[in-house]
Amino acid sequence: MTDDKKAHTEDAGGKPQTSGSPPLPTINFATFIFSLNSSALVQLGMMEDPMTGQKTKNLPMAKQTIDVISMLEEKTRGNLDGDEAAMIKNILYDLRILYVKEKG
């Protein structure tokens, strides 16, 4: 099979992906919020950074990420279904508790 005949798709960043690449998850509100949650957990030092494999803390960035999720909660209020609203509320609660523990 030549390169011209390979199936091409685009990843979330718009970069071409060949059919041999693992599929990316469907982007929806939940996966977007879970992605921000994962970023905040990395920034809080709770998870390894996938790029470095190291656990490092960056509390100012964690606070900013938590604030972004909070802003999204505010701006989408009334437009989310019950599961989405509960998910974002629970994620914010957990992240805020973790942030306070790390900050203290």
TrEMBL record:
InterPro entries: DUF1844 (IPR014995). It comes from the Bacteria. It comes from Desulfosarcina ovata subsp. ovata. It holds the Pfam family DUF1844. Residues 1-13 have a biased composition (Basic and acidic residues). Residues 1-24 are annotated as: Disordered. This is DUF1844 domain-containing protein.
